[in-house]
Amino acid sequence: MDNRPCVLHCHSHFSDGSFAPALIALKAMDIGLRAICLTDHDTVAGQAEFHYACARLGLDFLPALEITTHLLGEEIHLIAVGVDLHRAKELDQFLTPNNAVHAYREQQYWQKFHNAGLITDDLATVKGKLGFPAKFAFKYHWDDYRVRFCGIDPATANAETRQGGVAFVPATKQNYVPTLQTIDFIHQLGGLAIYAHPGSTVKGAPELFGQILETLIAAGLDGIEVFHPKNTEPNDFMAIAQHYHLLVSGGSDNHGRFTPKLSLAERSITYDQFLLIKDQLK
Ligand SMILES: [Zn+2]
Ligand SMILES: [Zn+2]
To answer: What is the mean pLDDT of residues 127-155?
Structure first.
């Protein structure tokens, strides 16, 4: 039995986290993780740096990303693990709709702040000042910009981009890639599809959850994120994993200093559970 902790969900500054991939690997080693996956939103741009650092530090890892999809009117996040990074170009091509959503959303954030007279910099200047390699400015980036460059306190900045806030940008779910097509595509790239934070679906659409789950299983879903800060009932998801013979995953969904109350090691799985996922990829 190997119970050493593993985290299969976190974000770097290549999407909406604040840390460099190599720094995440260092932190993972410091807190005693045995394996870790970096799961940036809709990009594998940080994977090479991350894998190099993990290998140097003796951490086990798998290539991974988190893909935003839509099914039955709901936003469903899939963790793709073990995808062939030599096919990153095909992956980028597949994710064109998602990149278009991210580009649209950052423009919307900028427009709303600009219209409210709260931001005078143009979008390119905002992104230049933020200084992250992420292609798009996500919610956390706008909060960070307001704190660092406009002198707004973090709680107020967070409220501005939340529902009811002056710069809230509503979700545009139906424009993301379709979930079932994404599961197929992950399989084509040699990877496994894991249903990320099912707790957020249950919360948003409890009556739909069963239908969504059955649809995902029929489409060849490989695993479920039993452990995640948004899953208030992990036992329910563990029962689902056992019933449907799904791989068990978990992770903190840490975003660096953008999620200051969340330890990187939270909601980990065991190394034995990680190895079941790894073996499935062989
Ligand atoms: Zn997610
Ligand atoms: Zn995430």
So the answer is: 97
